[in-house]
Fold:
Amino acid sequence: MYKIAITNRKLTEDLLRQIEILQRSEYRYIILREKDMSQQEYTALAKKALDISDKIILHTFIETALELNYRKIHLPFDLFKENIDSIGGFEIKGVSTHSLKEAVYCMENKADYITYSHIFATDCKKGIEPKGLKALENVCKNVTIPVFALGGINEENAQSCIDVGARGVCMMSEAMKRVL
Structure:
């Protein structure tokens, strides 16, 4: 199963140590999603993370990616729309989506993959109704780029996302608590 880890330094005691663990795990990519940091803080973290892992995809901070000459980025949908012209040369362009309309827009504008969320109930979106497997299946059937399920995904429910057409799954809590 194709898995992507998403970082959250608040869920682990030592984020860089956790990235080392994930580097040696089955996760294919690690999205460095610390979007509440300043750009300066994020750039410093990104440099350290890139020294540890070749699985990193930067998140939100396009300027950091350009400064570090690193061409793998994952963006929130609105940032993707605003910056389509400046990210054309990136090797990997991923986008967070929350509707079929956003997913189709990303496909039409050359995103390499999308995440679609949130599928199951999750602490990150407390009180917000999850999209569910039917909505995930609908997105998967209507776009030709890889779709990665996100939100409340764990080892027990991941396969159900694959069964309805997702290319893989993204995990935050599971990845941040992972031990080898």
